[in-house]
Amino acid sequence: MSASNRRVLLKSRPQGEPTPANFDLVEAPIPEPKEGEYLSRTIWLSLDPYMRGRMSEARGYASNVELGDPMVGGTVGQVVKSRNPGFKEGDFVVEQSGWQSYAVSTGAGVTKLDPNAAPLSAALSVLGMPGMTAWWGLMQIGKPKAGETVVVSAASGAVGSVVGQLARLHGCRAVGIAGGKAKCDYVVKELGFDACVDYRAAGKDLFRELRAAAPKGIDVYFENVGGAVQAAVLPQLNDFARVPLCGLVSQYNEMQMSPGPDWRLLLVRRVTVQGFIVSDHFGEMEGFRKEVPPAVKAGRIKYREDIVQGLENAPEAFIGLLKGRNFGKLLVQVSDDPTRK
Ligand code: NDP
User: Fold this and answer.
1) Structural domain count of the chain
2) CATH code of the domain containing 46
3) Pairwise CA distance, residues 320 & 266, whole Å
4) Does 281 lie in the same domain as 324?
5) Are residues 137 and 285 in the same domain?
6) Does ligand 1 come within 6 angstroms of the Cβ of 323?
7) Which of 282, 341, 334, 285 is nearest to 46 (CA)?
8) pLDDT digits (tens, 9 = 90+) for 20-78
């Protein structure tokens, strides 16, 4: 056990893009668990786009991080000391310890992990929150039918990659939109999407390239990014299309809202748009558990991790996530994973 608790605190609120100056890396004493608590060592920290919202003052769906507090975040840790009978030394846990190398917890909302079932880090990607987001949004709102065309943006990422693979497993044409050739090649060649449009290379031709990739129009658009990508997709929605409104990552750093979508078009095509927050539905994941973990185990759903070493590198990695620098689920390895060679 190292001698201190490294923590990344929110130092100031970003104006537009976050910068390293918005974060403070500090060393604090390792906390002692009280009766009913345990202490865990963080192994994996998940970095996710929603964290940008928590850094700002604007009202979101969850409370913001206070200045001087550690950044929030999902983690996988190992119990190193316990005064809670439900948790023993050595247990692996999925928790919300945030950007720090140690944390105490009462165990509320914590799930234990079987290290033999899957790599520990998968609990923060395909088998955890991003995988559930993909499954819930696609199956409950997108309601894909065989033969339909499903388009997903941020297609090589943690959520988008699972959406497209699930769409294929349900007999749909899966079309991704991603930034760069390497991401598009991965989406088609490794993940088996039918096509992928590189929105960065396409530029003004995005509408036309998307039409070529989805010649029968779009029945489900799984929205992850908003902005120019959304503007190219919406006119191509078919009658009665469904849009799971999952995220708008291209806008998270914007100081002013850009002009909105053409709502008239959504009206005349009778499109269903539904926003959702996956944490409202964590109790409704029976279908996810039946479908996704077995498909991952059998190799029908693949996933990719983008691993950054060391908590001190979390701020730069997070800043890059909001610009598409990650390639796959972005994770920080905070300390040694004893199950990984
Ligand atoms: P990813 O692993 O997909 O990483 C984010 C990706 O977003 C980047 O790699 C990049 O891909 C893309 N991106 C970043 N900036 C821009 C931009 N300016 N324009 C277009 N694309 C951009 O992240 P996740 O899979 O974790 O998240 C995807 C979306 O899902 C986000 O919007 C997130 O907020 C949302 N989400 C919503 C949840 C909910 O409950 N509603 C839960 C979890 C996630 P590229 O290089 O291809 O552009």
Assistant:
1) 2
2) 3.90.180.10
3) 33
4) no
5) yes
6) yes
7) 334
8) 999 999 999 999 999 999 999 999 999 999 999 999 988 778 889 999 999 999 999 99
Single pTM value for the model: 0.95
Quick check: CB of 161 below 6 Å from ligand 1? no
Residues 261 and 329 in one domain: no
From CA 142, how far away is CA 140, in angstroms rounded?
6
How far apart are alpha carbons 313 and 215 in whole angstroms? 43
> Taking a C-beta distance cutoff of 8 angstroms, is the pair 191, 299 a contact?
no
What amino acid occupies position 205? D
CA angle 110, 116, 121 (to 5 degrees): 55
Pocket lining: 324 vs ligand 1, CB cutoff 6 Å: yes
Cα 252 to ligand 1 centre (Å): 10
From CA 160, how far away is CA 133, in angstroms rounded? 9
Going by C-alpha positions, the residue among 75, 88, 78, 80 that lies closest to residue 32 is: 80
Is 159 touching ligand 1 by the criterion CB < 6 Å?
yes
Atom of ligand 1 nearest to the CA of 279: 40
Tell me, yes or no, whether 146 and 102 share the same domain: no
Same domain, 192 and 208: yes
Whether ligand 1 lies within 6 angstroms of the CB of 249 is answered as yes
Structural domain boundaries, residue 58: 5-121+304-333
Compute the distance from residue 298 Cα to the ligand 1 centre, in Å: 26
Whether residue 161 lies inside any domain: the answer is: yes
Match 């902005």 to its residue by tokens.
227
